[in-house]
Amino acid sequence: MTPATSEAELHPWNRGFEWQRHQGPFRALSSGQAGHFDDDGYVVLEGVFDAGVVHEVTAEIDPLEARTESFLRRQEEGRMMIAEAGAITFSVHLVTRSEALRRFATHPAVLDLCADLVGPDVNLYWDQAVYKKPEKPRRFPWHQDNGYTYVEPQQYLTCWVALTDATVDNGCPWVVPGAHRLGTLRHTFVDPLGFECFSDPEGAVAAPVGAGGIVVFSSLTPHLTGPNTTDAVRKAYILQYAPAGARTLTGDPAGGPPTGGAACDAPERQFPVLRGGEAVAPPD
Questions:
Q1: Which of 56, 151, 162, 268 gets the most CB atoms within 10 Å of its CB?
Q2: Angle between the 108-117 and 31-40 helix axes, to the nearest 10 degrees?
Q3: Is 55 inside any structural domain?
């Protein structure tokens, strides 16, 4: 246990986890970048997508996110769980509503990262747009992506794609380097933040990135995004990828081992993107 995670506890289902380092040859990363990912749990890649691609993706997401914002404004107190109108929105499973976003989820630049950091056989696991609004600045809680829904194998990939510049002032990601090597941590619900694995760890670092760049991190990397204290919306599109055959475990962690599970292969949103290292066309 490092000083940064001294207050953390392992998830009850996390037993005997060992981080698997990545071996080349690499398609997208240099050996140094891959080593940084293995050592610290993340790597920042600038300029992955040009302005035209960013514009196309943003134009596709903006009207879908507007529906999310409108839905939240109709809810009691304008919120649902951590999502809140004027503060932060989560527009999920957008690939089910947009052919352009299905194509983007299989962009060659992303698939090369999947080949480097997941393996030759990969499925899309999750996608969501997260817009941080300037009306109500709020930070996100410290969490791991695998702390929400427990996936086995635990080690999958998050690509945090910046659609606007992501800065310390408008809510860029922060990470705790090295903590990913512990595996999945216990998360507790803290109102109104949501599920949290610890608070105020030592050694956290900011990961700002320009529009078109990606903050690439593990499902096991503790991270948050800070408050947006600017006068503009910070926009990001998050794509997550898991090995083919990954399963979501179910049960009560406090009550014992998992009692069931389900394959992460819903065809409309968890479709194959790589097989044998080769790209798979997205569904129509």
A1: 162
A2: 60
A3: yes
Contact 188, 196 (CB under 8 A): yes
CATH number for the domain spanning 38: value is: 2.60.120.620
Domain annotation covers residue 4: no
Quickly list DSSP for 227-239.
---SSS-EEEEEE
Place of tokens 């790589």: 274
Q: Over the stretch 196-251, which tens digit does the pLDDT of each residue have?
A: 888 889 899 999 999 999 999 999 999 999 999 999 999 999 999 999 999 999 99
The closest of 82, 104, 84, 205 to 159, measured between CA atoms, is 104
The owner of tokens 């991270």 is 223
Q: What 8-state DSSP symbol labels residue 277? A: T
Contacts of 274 by beta carbon, 8 Å cutoff, 6+ apart? 111, 114, 115, 118, 119, 120, 121, 122, 280
C-alpha 125/C-alpha 157 separation (Å) is 9
pTM: 0.95
Domain carrying residue 47: 27-275
Which residues does 4 contact at the CB level (< 8 Å), separation at least 6? 176, 177, 178, 179, 201, 202, 203, 204
In which residue are the tokens 């406090």 written? 254
Residues constituting the chain? 284
Tell me the pLDDT tens digit for each residue of 165-194.
999 999 999 999 999 999 999 998 877 667
Number of domains forming the structure of the chain: 1
> Does pLDDT of 109 surpass 90?
yes
In a domain, 109, yes or no: yes
Report d(CA 161, CA 98) in Å as an integer. Answer: 17
